């Protein structure tokens, strides 16, 4: 817990070593000493014992300790499920999922095999992906914060559907990033970015596969057409302003491609 959340006289769940699943001890904070240190009294085990604890060892108010333990159990079950269903932390796939969900921009995120979101945000995305409303499926669970945690396979299935139905927001994002990074790499002194660019290109290839090659090509052609119209508008504007030299240069560039 954060130091600002702690109060003297309140009972908390204490864990000497922050190892998930290990027993919790009931303590009452007596006095803030300094920094992250507090003086505390043990309530159940070794009742009456007074010792010093740190903020990092105080997990939740004691009245919430059962929900906290259940959440730890649910999270461990979810991770075991991921491992037993083929999740291996494969970087390109995980990176692809992160980027897909970042493009949604609706309180939904993916990290290390777990999709985190609210039920409302999840159902909005499922509607966009032409899927039915979500019914909680084990090992997915709702945490104490009201956010759902979904396993890797459910996250990937949803991402694939979204990419097929709405490829535009995903493709625009990755193509913009790829173009900008490619220009950065070409500048002297930025050679160190090459491994990072290559690493991300693997995830971009996966996203394009999920979007479907036809959809990706169609989206790219659409963007090229828009850009070409903008260039011709600029040419006409330059001619109207009497800047024929600049207009001719742009026209030759268009004609040469």
UniProtKB/TrEMBL annotation:
The protein, known as: Uncharacterized protein
Top-level taxonomic group: Bacteria
Organism: Granulicella mallensis
Lineage start: Bacteria, Pseudomonadati, Acidobacteriota, Terriglobia, Terriglobales
């Amino acid at each position: 817990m954060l130091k600002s959340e702690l109060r003297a006289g309140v009972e908390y769940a204490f864990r000497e070593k922050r190892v998930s699943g290990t027993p919790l001890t009931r303590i009452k904070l007596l006095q803030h000493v300094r920094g992250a240190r507090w003086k505390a009294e043990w309530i159940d085990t070794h009742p009456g014992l007074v010792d010093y604890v740190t903020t990092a060892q105080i997990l939740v108010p004691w009245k919430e300790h059962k929900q906290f333990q259940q959440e730890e159990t649910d999270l461990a079950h979810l991770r075991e499920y991921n491992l037993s269903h083929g999740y291996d932390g494969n970087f390109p796939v995980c990176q692809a999922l992160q980027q897909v969900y970042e493009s949604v921009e609706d309180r939904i995120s993916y990290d290390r095999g777990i999709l985190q979101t609210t039920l409302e945000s999840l159902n909005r995305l499922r509607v966009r992906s032409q899927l039915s409303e979500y019914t909680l499926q084990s090992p997915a669970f709702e945490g104490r914060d009201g956010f759902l945690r979904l396993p890797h396979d459910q996250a990937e299935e949803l991402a694939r559907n979204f990419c097929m139905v709405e490829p535009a927001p995903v493709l625009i994002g990755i193509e913009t990033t790829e173009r900008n990074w490619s220009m950065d790499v070409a500048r002297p002194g930025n050679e160190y970015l090459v491994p990072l660019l290559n690493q991300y290109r693997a995830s971009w290839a996966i996203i394009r596969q999920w979007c479907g090659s036809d959809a990706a090509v169609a989206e790219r052609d659409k963007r090229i057409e828009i850009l070409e119209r903008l260039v011709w508008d600029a040419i006409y504007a330059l001619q109207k302003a009497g800047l024929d030299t600049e207009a001719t240069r742009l026209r030759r560039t268009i004609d040469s491609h």
